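note to self — DONT lose this again. spent like an hour looking for the file last time. sequence + predicted structure for the chain T wanted, 324 res
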Amino acid sequence: MGVTRRAALSTPLPGLLAGRARAAEGWPAARPIRLVCPFAPGGASDLTARLLAPRMAARLGQSIVVENRAGGSGTVAGAAVAQAAPDGYTLLWDGFSHIVNPLLLRGLAFDYATAFAPISQAAVFPQSIAVKAGSPYADIGAFIAAARARPGAISAGHSGNGTASHLLLERFRHVTGAALNAVPYRGAGEAARDLAAGVLDSAVLAVSTNTQLEDAGRARVLGVATAERVPVRPNVPTLIEAGLAGFVLSDMAGLFAPAGTPEPIQARLHQALVASLAEPEVRARFDQLAILPGEGTPQEFGAWIARTRAEMAELVRDAGIRVE
């Protein structure tokens, strides 16, 4: 059977493959590596990028420059990397938006499922529900009962439309029937500020953020959306323990390269990140911030993204979630 025109066009030419192989052999030697982060400086994802980048750089023998390109719910940074040459010098440090953007945003200039090669999950940010200091709600059960009894009276902040905390809040409202007044913010920092000030009655934010507020006497954590209790708050029950079966949802940070990046480069990036995550100083810092290290092969990371996206698609449909 002859080769069709479409097949011929989709098959890399031998010269192109040889050129990529030569480029991979000398990588990274030409210039610094750009690590594009879709989030503003100071957040958990940015913090982990800046913690791990110099350690990866030391292993790769080339500097890694973290570049913050916030905007468009992560699509500004995503587009920049999707359009970059697949040569290992432009990478994406993405989060939960990588999973939900295809479900919530229309007219994207690229396809998240095909534009990137998953390299490694780097960090997992468990989510939690907290109430302001002095709140009368002692546990999740009382919180749910009050929200059902007074629809819309209890405010619940989250870190922005399409974020993990937003999806968790919508899932919580959908599953429990708690008629909370959802309040979106432009980031976790703004929501945390208003919870600490008593402007918000409650907030769904990363465990690391809510526990810092609790340590300062400005909030109280009622439950965590993890399979097991988190070490920094062993006294706080999981939402599963509170009666919400299977209620697990976390934010994450992961490393991606443009699709077509040579396999040897992808392998070296994965190895450098995994080795950096294993450093005792990194593990200690993660423990302080209630961050869990990522794990798994690139294939397992890609499968997790696909599986989680399917789960979120079901939630978006069932809860009628929209992003304006």
